[in-house]
Design brief:
The complex is a heterodimer of chains A (96) and B (451). Chain A is of the alpha+beta class. Helices cover 27% and strands 39% of the residues of chain A. The chains are: A alpha+beta (96), B alpha+beta (451).
């Protein structure tokens, strides 16, 4: 099993994530590609001391981009595993 | 919102405005909305950042801004909205201002004093007769000739009216007068100086001036001077000093003949014409003096007619202005700055008195202007700008541009114009009497009202 702080890579600070957090009590993280829902739920519960109701996981595929500085050879951009964690009503994660 | 006014003294009041917690909260909400609209936070388009994040990120700025808004709201409500004419805010105490809590803001203000206008129409003024008498013309003529006089070296004993180059040294007992009054070398020792022998109104030591009569170049003499009891500088008052004088050179004053050449250089055809011109000049001068005197008399009358207190802070700031003007004038005349330091307190007292009178007359005139509905017109501004342009030697267009950018300058100009126009009105309506005319032809100045 991977360490909790290795699973949670980043807290997403975007308009979409902010909307989810404000309205649906859902918090969005970028997580390690090898982590699964159960591991993410455990990690969030442990790090933020909250109760997790549900975890949705999705993989954002990397985009292939031409790199002009390398004579047009293709490279890649972006790509990560994203977890949207729904917390029990009343629980919240305060991160700014 | 509640406003509470307390009198400290006649011109100073304490206004405390308390603002309820809801009102503060309302202000804060508005403020946050404003912040949200402008906040640039990575990950969010401008205006899309959530309120919570904005609050957390800009907590310090928000609190500061909130304080300002609450104070300005209180100012609007308590100071501007109140039915007292506030001149100046002397002190401001805001207490604790926090979102969701009641806030109290206390202003200490100086108010424009209320007063009853005295009767300002038909203020009696006295004019001096303006016609030039023959003696005055003669005196002027001699003065002109004196200015063109030549001073020739004369090998003779000095007579009254001759100029003598001399040196002198004053002693009281064994003590040098120069040590007693280091500030006034005129009374102490002089190495080289010109004195008019026997002159009636010469400054300096009387005995020396009188003693020079009858001395020729190279003569030496000792004279005694008894300083009167009320003499200034005080160090010399009532003392007796001996002066050792040495005459070096005697020059005789030769007045020029009033010939054609001289007349031409003065721009006159003959002597009668010159006299005519001089008398016109004197008359003009007197009329000008009368016009000034009228204004002074009217101001004095108004000042005497009403009495009301003037706010301290106002007097203080005006005193500074008066002092600065005074210093500037004197520095231009070459009086060293140390002189002012010595008489600082005296100067300050005088200036504060002058400032007090100036403000008082300004307030009275302002009120009269209000009553008479006197306004500054575009023409007046134009004239004022032209005048300033002439004085400073700038182009009027440039000056206009400068002035347009400076609202406070415009306001100042406006109030100057209004006060001047009010003064003109008062002068027009004043009742003139000519003081004991020396000449039957003495005429009243009729043009003084338009100046």
């Amino acid at each position: 099993m991977i360490q909790a702080d290795k699973i949670l890579r980043e807290y997403r600070v975007t308009e979409k994530a902010a909307d989810l957090a404000a309205n649906l009590n859902q918090y969005t993280f970028e997580v390690a590609p090898e982590a699964n829902r159960k591991e993410v739920a455990r990690a969030v519960a442990k790090v933020f001391n909250v109760e997790v109701k549900k975890v949705n996981i999705l993989i954002k595929k990397p985009k292939v981009k031409m790199d002009r500085t390398r004579r047009g050879r293709p490279g890649s951009k972006g790509g990560h595993k994203k977890a949207i964690v729904t917390l029990k009503e009343g629980d919240a994660i305060e991160l700014v | 919102m509640k406003t509470d006014v307390k009198d400290i003294n006649e011109t100073r009041k304490e206004i405390s405005v308390s603002i309820s917690a809801e009102e503060v909260a309302e202000q804060e909400n508005k403020l946050i909305k404003d912040f949200q609209r402008q906040a640039k936070i990575p990950g969010f388009r401008p205006g899309k950042a959530p309120e919570k994040m904005v609050r957390a990120r800009f907590a310090k700025d928000i609190l500061q801004e909130l304080k300002q808004r609450v104070i300005s709201q209180a100012h609007q409500e308590g100071v501007v909205g109140a039915d007292i004419e506030v001149f100046n805010i002397v002190d401001l105490q805001e207490g604790a201002i926090a979102p969701g809590a009641e806030a109290t803001v206390t202003f200490t203000v100086d108010v424009v004093p209320g007063f009853e206008l005295p009767a300002y129409e038909g203020i009696p003024v006295t004019n001096e007769p303006t016609a030039a008498s023959d003696e005055e013309v003669d005196k002027m003529l001699t003065q002109i000739l004196n200015q063109r006089a030549e001073y020739n070296v004369a090998e003779k004993a000095a007579e009254k009216g001759d100029y003598v180059r001399c040196s002198y040294e004053g002693k009281i007992g064994d003590e040098l007068v120069a040590d007693l009054v280091p500030d006034a070398p005129m009374y102490g020792s002089q190495k080289v100086t010109w004195e008019e022998a026997g002159s009636e109104d010469a400054p300096g030591v009387r005995a020396v001036v009188d003693g020079l009569v009858g001395m020729s170049a190279g003569d030496e003499k000792e004279v005694t001077m008894e300083f009167p009891e009320d003499f200034k500088p005080e160090a010399l008052a009532g003392k007796t000093a001996t002066y050792q004088i040495k005459a070096e050179e005697v020059r005789e004053k030769v007045l020029p003949e009033l010939d054609e050449e001289l007349l031409q250089s003065l721009g006159a055809e003959d002597e009668a014409d010159l006299r005519q011109k001089i008398s016109e000049n004197i008359e003009n001068q007197k009329q000008q003096q009368n016009a000034n005197a009228e204004r002074q008399q009217i101001t004095d009358a108004l000042l005497k007619a009403v009495d009301f207190p003037i706010p301290e802070s106002w007097v203080a700031s005006e005193t500074d202005v008066v002092l600065r003007e005074f210093m500037q004038r004197n520095l231009q005349q070459g009086i060293p700055a140390e002189e002012f330091e010595k008489h600082k307190e005296q100067l300050h007292d005088g200036a504060s008195k002058a400032a007090h009178d100036r403000l008082k007359s300004r307030l009275i005139l302002g009120k009269i202007a209000e009553q008479e509905k006197i306004k500054a017109e575009q023409d007046d501004f134009g004239r004022m700008i032209m005048m300033q342009a002439q004085q400073t030697g700038e182009k009027p267009e440039k000056l206009v541009k400068e002035i347009q950018q400076d609202q406070s300058r415009i306001n100042r100009m406006r109030s100057d114009i209004i006060l001047a126009k009010t003064m003109d009105l008062l002068v027009e309506k004043a009742e003139r009497t000519v003081a004991a005319p020396a000449d039957a032809e003495a005429t009243k100045p009729t043009d003084s009202g338009e100046k």
